[in-house]
Amino acid sequence: MNRFILPALVLLIAAQSPAYAISEKYRKQLERSGCTQASELQGCDIHKTKAENAKAGFTNPKAADAPKSDAKTQAPAKTE
Hints:
- The protein is mainly alpha-helical.
- The protein has helices at 2-15, 24-33, 37-41, 50-55, 61-65.
- It has a domain at 20-59.
C-alpha cells in the first residue's frame, strides 16, 4: 500500500501551484491606477492612471506618505 501512496503524494506535492489572492496583471493594474481593491468597489477605475483617478476624487494619501517597508526589518508587535 505504501508503494502507491508515497509516489502519489510526491506527484501531488510537485504538481501543486501556489495560490495567490490576485493575479500579477491585476496587481500591476492596481499599482498603475493608484486604486486599492476597496476603492475599486467604490468606483476607482483600474484602467485609468493615478492622475486620472485623483482628478475623479480617488486618492490614497496614506499609501503615498507611507514609506516602503520590508517585512524583515519590522519588529514584531508586543502583546501583553
